[in-house]
Amino acid sequence: MSVATGAVTDALRELHTRYSGVGEGALADYIPPLTHADPGAFGLALISMDGHRYGVGEADVPFTVQSVSKPFVYALALSLLGLDEVCRWVNAEPSGEAFNAISLERGTGRPANAMVNAGAIVTTALVPDTPRAPRFGRILDCLSRFAGRRLDVDEEVYASEAATGDRNRALAYLIRSTGPLPVDPVAAVETYFRQCAVRVTALDLAAMAATLAHGGVNPLTGDRVVPEPVAAQVLAVMATCGMYDASGDWLLRVGLPAKSGVSGGLIAAGPARFGLAAYSPLLDAAGTSVRGRLAIGKLSERLGLHLMHNPALAGSTVTLVTTAAGLPAAPAGARERARRERVAVAAAQGALDFTAAERVLYALDEAGTGRTGAVVLDLVRVTDIDTVARAMLRGGLARLDADGRRTAVADPDGRLYAPGEETGAPRCFASREEAVAWCAETAVG
Ligand code: GLN
């Protein structure tokens, strides 16, 4: 067992031991086969962005996905129709109501959000149903790609919910009677029951959550399941609406996008960090797994995962702000020294995003020794520049150039300007020394 496996598994095992004795809550019984679940079952699973899988307890035990399917079918609808079109039919406001409430907007009849049953039924109805690609086939394919393996349906649970699901059917009729929907929620409710009866394990759910956390790419299979903006949209709605009338309290205390289901599944996603899932079928009054809620809440607290926490400021983006005269290798000759004093140098490291780029630009300003000096930006130790940061840095360098400053970048891997690209202003070099030498040569001594 590797060291990482030990540390992560130990953390999950400790939570499992801590909460496995909690006997509060009740099995959902309005879908009769759900009462056959083992009330003692308790599994926890975590999947990292590198696709490392960790599970303890009943992480491999199958159960029906129920409402945990909702964010993933919402993702499918968003990727097929786009956010604006989906929002015309399903709003994205927390309802503050139970999962099966009649949460319909006055006037439009639009459901409050896609995480409550009313919104989930409409979302399912929005998935196109064509002879070549039937609606349920698309949904099962999509859920399977999120999980990274072929999933199937628990026919007994499906038949039971289809036989007892009058409240959902009533909701669908009500929606059809009030809203000018382009689709038929009454026809879709049977598909919705089937989607709720898809069989998963806690490890499957962790992979599904990890795919959302990983920008829509399944970290186990490398499959791009949904576009990155869709993954972010789904996580946003999970954060505000995923726990029904307990969503505000959950975001306050746990601080992670999450979704619960009545069979005892619970997922939480740490964006760009991991997917987490719990399975334990004893539910609280809001229909959330009691042990799952406790375990995921404690994990978030222990590991400082709350999204609103001040994110660890990436240590030092800017590693150097000086003039070329202050560099260790600077030659001592007076004339050369004077020239190098007119060359400002700032060096950055790591992955550059908006926040990091702001620091780098500020450092370039600070490093300046006057309006006529040259500027060297050293990106040798930069590992990545995202599109926002790239535009900011290019813009900053262009402004310096427009101010009459000579600009050079040390960019051996072509991260800021593609190799051979016409930069407009800055000269690109493979090393800081070459960039400095070029600037110093031409600096007015
Ligand atoms: N199939 C269930 C229902 O529609 C799902 C509800 C849930 O998991 N909260 O009632």
Jot down its keywords:
445 residues, alpha/beta, Beta-lactamase, Transcription Regulator spoIIAA, 2 domains, five-stranded mixed sheet, 43% helix, binds glutamine
Tally of individual helices: 16
Q: Can you summarize the main beta sheet? A: 5 strands, antiparallel
CATH architecture of the largest domain: 3-Layer(aba) Sandwich
Kindly identify the CATH topology of the largest domain.
Beta-lactamase
Please report the first level of CATH classification, the CATH class of the largest domain. Answer: Alpha Beta
What is the number of strand segments? 12
Name the bound molecules.
Answer: glutamine
Provide the spatial order of strands within the biggest beta sheet. 2-1-7-6-5
Principal-axis shape equals: elongated
- Would you tell me the structural class of the helices and strands? alpha/beta
Element string (H = helix, E = strand):
HEEEHHHHHHHEHHHEEEHEHEHEHEEH
Contiguous low-pLDDT stretches (5 residues minimum) are none
User: Into how many domains do the coordinates divide?
Assistant: 2
Radius of gyration: 27 Å
CATH superfamily of the largest domain: DD-peptidase/beta-lactamase superfamily
* Helicity range: 40-55%
Beta-strand content bin: 5-15%
Mean pLDDT: 92
Terminal Cα separation, in Å? Answer: 63 Å
